[in-house]
């Protein structure tokens, strides 16, 4: 087994999040605008074979964990093929997916059989009207059916992601946390991050609910939250358990408690660029290398350069949305 690659700050980077598309079937208020989006065409996305090549190169460098995301990954018609190809690469330790769940009733069993292990399902409200206001094109019934399909298919543990957005869903924090009393689900509350530009980023900035506030709401209604040790190095969630609960309540706090110091992840955009940090615009293009006839070694060299140039962090806690640096010297 190769040693896990380290970045310039000594962090072991062994987790690759792969975006499969920038398209989505929902329009969450803090994520995507209703109009004015310019989305890539599918021919611009890495195809299943190209994704497999990146995964092979990543494994050869010491990467072990992979997550599929988007946009909405279940919109890719070749999703089952992609998961199957990844699962067959020797050395791939874990494949998970982040999804809004809407297409899981049709896909969960096939994805499990192809080698997907787990899903994180995005659910911001348990109230149909509030959910329609915050996730816009989604419905509670559709997402709930997706969660049930995932559980039935054995995609466990079920993790739910709720983005807490002031004026939209603070009332849902307590009922969502209460789901963990009877179920072994992990319900994680995420602070809004000002991603992108315009109204969407404005909402994320204005409507931030600090995790401490969500936590206080939960404890006032449901009792003290006992801290749990981190489940693994790549878990950005600070996990807790309610008294007598089966499941886990987690807080993901990129704004008020950044976890950049333990970040072990690299991102691959749907168009094949390694993105060095979620909140940093610097990218390294791997698609050009693949389509120009470059083999696994060329891909691995680009990924290694991306690891070495990973920035320290995003400093959202200081009110910045990116860590601006000079253009990277990419020669080495
Ligand atoms: N479509 C999938 C989904 O809804 O989960 C995967 C992509 S989505 C970008 C991944 C996760 O990012 C979502 O689960 C949501 O919780 C989170 N997210 C999106 N926009 C965010 C924002 N501005 N701040 C914090 N979290 C955000």
Structural account:
The chain has 332 residues and is of the alpha/beta class. It is built from 10 helices and 12 strands. It has a 12-stranded mixed beta sheet with strand order 7-8-9-6-5-4-3-2-1-10-11-12. Helix 3 links the parallel strand 3 and strand 4. Helix 1 crosses helix 10 and helix 3 runs parallel beside helix 5. The chain is globular, with a radius of gyration of 19 Å. The C terminus is likely disordered. Bound molecules: S-adenosylmethionine. The site of S-adenosylmethionine has 17 residues, from strand 3 and strand 5.
Would you kindly provide a brief summary of this structure?
With 332 residues, the protein is α/β, with parallel strands linked by helices. It is built from 10 helices and 12 strands. 44% of the residues are buried.
The proportion of residues forming helix, as a percent range, comes to: 25-40%
What is the number of E strands? 12
Radius of gyration using CA atoms only: 19 Å
Secondary structure tally, helices: 10
Low-confidence stretches: 320-332
Strand order of the largest sheet: 7-8-9-6-5-4-3-2-1-10-11-12
Small-molecule binders here are: S-adenosylmethionine
CA(first)-CA(last) distance: 24 Å
| Secondary-structure-derived class | alpha/beta
Q: Can you lay out the helices and strands and say which pair or pack?
A:
Elements: E1 15-19, H1 48-61, E2 65-69, H2 79-87, E3 94-99, H3 104-114, E4 118-122, H4 128-134, H5 140-153, E5 159-164, H6 173-182, E6 186-191, H7 198-206, H8 211-222, E7 226-227, E8 238-241, E9 248-252, E10 265-268, E11 273-277, E12 280-285, H9 287-291, H10 296-308
Parallel strand pairs: 1-2, 1-10, 2-3, 3-4, 4-5, 5-6, 6-9
Antiparallel strand pairs: 7-8, 8-9, 10-11, 11-12
The structure holds S-adenosylmethionine (SAM).
S-adenosylmethionine binds at residues 24, 30-31, 69-70, 72, 98-100, 122, 161, 163, 190, 192-193, 195, 204.
